[in-house]
UniProtKB/TrEMBL annotation:
This is Conserved Oligomeric Golgi complex subunit 6 C-terminal domain-containing protein. Pfam families: COG6_C. GO terms for cellular component: Golgi transport complex. GO terms for biological process: intra-Golgi vesicle-mediated transport.
Amino acid sequence: MLETLFRKNDDKYQDISGVTIQVSDTVADLLDYAMEGTCRPLKSRMEQVLVLQPGALTSYKIANLIQFYTVTLSKLMRKDAALERVLYELTELAYKYFFDTLNAQAEELKEFTEMPDHKLAITPKIRDMSAQLKEILASYDSSLIVATNSAENLPEFNFSEILDAIIEPLLHTCESSVAKLSKIDQSIYLVNCLHHIQAILAPYSFTEAKRENIAARLSDYLNDIALEEYNLLLKQAKLTKIKETLATKDPEVPLSSLPDMDVVSLTNALSKLDSSLVILSADISPHLEKLSSAQHYQQAQSSAIRLLLTTYTDISKAVQDPKNGYDNPDAILPRTVEDMEAIFFILPT
């Protein structure tokens, strides 16, 4: 409606001195003069509200609202109009207070180290902060600023900076709260936290860059979890010492000549693996079951088993290599690699 009232008018007239003046310029001047009186009380009142630092969500909504009116009114008034300048200043000030609130919140989080329970579920504090993130995302998504072209000279506020200012301190708190736990439990809890945040970001296309960043971190932590689980499987399968021997032995020295790698010792060791295969394939990992996502559970478990099968493949090749001095490899190896893959329901890659 305002745009209809004050739309550009190309009509012209002459003033008493004979100077030709465009009607739209006169309308713009009148609008500027009429609105100039609102500048001081508006600025004063908004500063009073912002100084109160009402909280991150409210601060953001205020900043977003001011920015909306700045964009809208700047299209109706002449450039450098008094109200336009005040609105620009208030927009910058509102976002400054918003980021100040986020920084204060981040400092508070640094002092907060609530350990998760034994199930490694996300703590209430992290859920509360995530809920705040969700509301800010919804506010930004529904904001008319998203669909409105920015006014000329209006400061650009990159939403990714807001995401970083909220999410990074949150993740730092997640990390510090599990610093005293085992490495695998640390990784599992951080995967649960990242997965929770990722789910909040998922509905919004403007969070794509941050989601990709989180996905990369998730992948790294899941790899760490898979490696830890693999080491546990190695111990259960009694393959740790054999693997270490293969990794460190001199290529010119026959494996069968090394301590505990003779035919009898190796046969006994691998027979223990065979007897534990059923348990290994059916057992639910007490660590992996703490992952909140079934997909992450399957991914970590599958990766760990593939690493175990790779180790068994290396052992199988070494036993069958004539250079290593084993006359009857089939008598030593309880299973073929294909048998192992079938037991763990893993298809050859």
